[in-house]
Write a structure and sequence with these properties.
Elements (H helix, E strand, L loop, with lengths): L1 H24 L3 E6 L6 E2 L1 H8 L13 E5 L7 H8 L3 H12 L8 E4 L2 H10 L3 E6 L7 E3 L1 E2 L15
Parallel strand pairs: 2-7, 3-4, 3-5
Antiparallel strand pairs: 1-5, 1-6
């Protein structure tokens, strides 16, 4: 009986660890923008163009910089699926290609944390980025995607 209790206890801990990992990967994300950006909403196709560096300038002429966490980060799995529609290796190739020859103003900037992402979006005119909704602060503006804000039903970057 002791062996069975130990086994069940170990199994329970393992199940808890797996559920925690899936919750961490299923975060709700938001598209945030620099406050000086006049664009406050994008379509899904516009978002895809932004994250693939296919949109170089906003309608007012400001250059676009797309800021994201590393494609290998677990919290980016949802965005790779919904925004890029391609695996991590192809996203890394796309980033390298988009930034080739642009050392002083990269099209796509990869950062190490949500805090750094928010700070970079806030400090770079024309910047947009994808961040965990709980990392948003008053230094950036949340953009609508397909007419919806985070936490609204049907929002594209909802994690569950």
């Amino acid at each position: 009986m002791s062996y069975q209790n130990t086994f069940l206890s170990t199994l329970s801990v393992f199940a808890l660890m797996l559920s925690s990992a899936s919750l961490a990967a299923a975060r709700d994300l938001a598209l945030v923008s620099n406050k000086a950006n006049s664009v406050t909403a994008v379509t899904v196709s516009d978002l895809v163009k932004l994250c693939k560096a296919q949109t170089n300038h906003w309608p007012d002429g400001k250059p676009v910089t797309f800021i994201m966490r590393a494609p290998s980060a677990p919290e980016m799995r949802l965005f790779l699926e919904k925004g890029y529609g391609m695996p991590e290796s192809q996203v890394n190739e796309l980033i390298a290609s988009a930034n080739h020859g642009r050392p002083y103003h990269p099209a796509i900037l990869v950062v190490n944390s949500d805090e750094e992402l928010v700070n970079r979006v806030a400090s770079i005119t024309g910047a947009v980025g994808v961040v965990d909704v709980y990392s948003i602060n008053s230094s950036v503006v949340v953009m609508k995607i397909a007419g919806k804000l985070p936490m609204e039903p049907g929002y594209l970057l909802h994690g569950n």
